[in-house]
Amino acid sequence: MNTLMNTLTSANIACCTRDNFLASQLGELIAKEGFDCEHFKHEAALMRMLRHRGGIDLVIIDLGHDPAIEESVYSWLGCRSGEPMPVMLIAPHWHAQRVAAALDMGADDCVARPFDGIELIARMKAVLRRSGAASSAPERIERAGFVLLKNDGLMLDGGKPLELTPREFSLAWLLFANPGQRLSREAISLAIWGTDKDIANRTIEQHVYKLRKKIGLTAGRGVMIRTTYGQGYRLEMCDAPVRRTVVPASTPRLLRLDAERNGTTVSVS
Description:
Blueprint: H1 2-7, E1 12-16, H2 20-32, E2 36-40, H3 43-52, E3 58-62, H4 67-79, E4 87-91, H5 96-105, E5 109-112, H6 117-130, E6 140-143, E7 146-149, E8 154-157, E9 160-161, H7 166-176, E10 183-184, H8 185-193, H9 197-215, E11 223-228, E12 232-237, E13 243-247, H10 253-261, E14 264-268
Parallel strand pairs: 1-2, 1-3, 3-4, 4-5, 13-14
Antiparallel strand pairs: 6-7, 7-8, 8-9, 10-12, 11-12
């Protein structure tokens, strides 16, 4: 036990919290162990750093009291592919279902606030020791005849590869990994682009449109992307037959597209 503890002589730890007291507390505890600590005030800044720079051994994220932060962090965890870097989550309250959801999404440990400094450091070191272990997160998803291979960044339709850009695949993975769950634009933006909705909102709409078109998601395939206007998107599994509607050629294109988004096959007369 002591030998294992002594091997952890250095580590680079990124901490993300909007709470100044917690940031100071984490910084002091981590510095006392001889580890380096880098503080990030916002999740988007942390995600951008992780996308463009390596060298981080552990990430600690404070979920605070905001459900939107929790949703965004879970979405980001679900999009990570083959990354060995462990993640610890801190929150004021944890119950069994919340812990299970966090671990299922890819978190390595969950710590409740307030915490004892000795216990937190012990948990950090335990997570760091385990960081070489294989991830328990799924690497393959099969739904409605589609197969998504996370580490290869590949999506198959009936065994044939689909031509998706890396971000289109990340979006598909995020949706297929969370069927029936509404994903806000903020969560998608942070998970895939590492930025906020003001910058990526229009880009998300374009990627969803292209994804629908490329992989042909309709009710007839048993799976579709449902738009929740002003809120986000949801992958919906459905057994209903294809609804066919004949509309006049004069019908505005945007109305036809809206009908198609909601599972209706539109024929123009």
